[in-house]
Amino acid sequence: MSGQPAGSPSSARPSLGDSLVSDFDDRDDDLPPPEWGRPRGQRRTATVWVFAVFIALMAFAHSWYTDDLTNEAFLAWATIFTAICLQAMPFLVFGVALSAALTAFVPESAYQRFIPKRAGTAVPVAGAAGGVLPGCECASVPMAGGLIRRGVAPAAALTFLLSAPAINPVVLVATGVAFSGQLEMVAARFLASFGAAVVTGWVWARFGKTDWLRMKQQHHDPAAPGWVVFRDSMLHDLMHAGGYLVVGAAAAGTLNVVVPREWVVTVADLPVISALVMAALAILLSICSEADAFVAASLSDFSPTAMLAFMVVGPMLDLKLIAIQAGTFGWRFVCRFAPLILATTLVFTFLIGGLLL
Questions:
Q1: Which of 156, 283, 310, 337 makes the best surface tag, with the fewest CB within 10 Å?
Q2: pLDDT beyond 50 at 9
Q3: What is the DSSP letter of 216?
Q4: Residue ranges of the alpha helices (H) in 23-118?
Q5: Where is the composition biased (Acidic residues) (predicted)?
Q6: Is 198 left (phi over 0), alpha (psi -120 to 50) or beta?
């Protein structure tokens, strides 16, 4: 950075951008000539043919399965799918908008002023801050990376990463709407998620190592205006979270219609097995935390503890989170952090579920 003394540590240790620039000499001798590759006209022709084949297949499928789409099974699936999407979408949009506003207009240095320096004290404070300053799963990971870069203890930043999408007000209100009249489910979700996040942070503060974290560059241009960051963040998170909501609603409808009822009843009658199955579904479906309560409530054959496992494990550990965390902190971090999260979430699910549900 310009303006620093020549003998300062920052100038002696070049940044990633400086090292890349030093190897670039503005020459394009190694670039392939423009005439290489398929001509542009051929690519356009291929795209048109692919699109035409896709439309033909859709028309054929419509004519072939028209009668099947009016039977009772499909109508039941469509009803469940539509109900979950319509119930969850307002909370999803509001949660994504709030998360984007926090990302765009609240400087990450503000979090540092309220989080203590000592990791043991900072962990519960960061966990509580995650409930006051909500964020979806996609936004919480880069926000945690920004906190670590600005001097916040890694254990505290990771606790914020876990608690923000799990216990924020939007998620708790959505849970209360999905489980109407069951305030014990809202309390159980809050206590189990907060306890799992804090204990995970404390364990990481005791046994975690700094070299397990491989920090990546920021996702947003620091010089970009706030409204640009807000727009890009909201569009990105809404497209991703909305897609996962649709997939989760379709999967929930399919489970309710396709899976034989006796299979579901057999698994649901086994307390431990049913909770493990719901935890596995939460990891695989990767549903946004603002919408997962509606999917869990639709699987009414499972026990309340199993539903709680779905809502506690999902916001902290799923396939999309594993991918985002690996891209932000590296696979060495994920291979150690993911098993720790799974263990703590399951322990608190069975503990709180057994006490309150």
A1: 283
A2: no
A3: -
A4: 40-64, 72-105, 108-114
A5: 23-32
A6: alpha
DSSP SS3 for 152: coil
CA neighbours within 13 Å on the CB side: how many for 197?
Answer: 33
Domain definitions of the chain by residue range: 75-356
Q: What's the sign of the alpha-carbon dihedral 295, 296, 297, 299?
A: positive
pLDDT band at 111 (very low <50, low <70, confident <90, very high): low
The two tokens of residue 28 are 């394009």
Q: Provide the b/e sequence for 217-231 (b: ≥16 CB within 10 Å).
A: eebeeeeeeeeebbe
Distance CA 348, CA 215 (A): 30
Q: How many CA atoms lie within 13 A of 339 on its CB side?
A: 5
Taking the C-alpha atoms of residue 353 and residue 316, their distance in angstroms, rounded to an integer, is 18
Look at residues 326, 313, 256, 325 and name the one whose alpha carbon lies nearest to residue 285.
313
Q: What is the pTM of this model?
A: 0.67
Check: CB of residue 160 under 8 Å from CB of residue 127.
yes
pLDDT at residue 153 in the model = 86
Is the pLDDT assigned to residue 13 strictly greater than 90?
no
Instruction: Please give the Cα distance from 170 to 135 (Å, whole number).
Output: 9
* Whether the Cβ atoms of residue 139 and residue 172 lie closer than 8 Å to each other: no
The pLDDT tens digits of the residues spanning 122-164 come to: 899 989 988 876 666 666 777 777 677 667 888 998 998 899 8
CA 192, 193, 195, 199 dihedral sign is positive
Question: From residue 153, how far is each of 125, 211, 267 by CA, in Å?
Answer: 12, 14, 42
CA angle in degrees (0–180, nearest 5) for 281-282-285: 75
Measure CA 263 to chain center: 30
Q: How far apart are CA 135 and CA 165, in angstroms?
A: 5
128, 152, 154, 196, 199 from 123: Cα distances, Å: 9, 10, 9, 12, 9
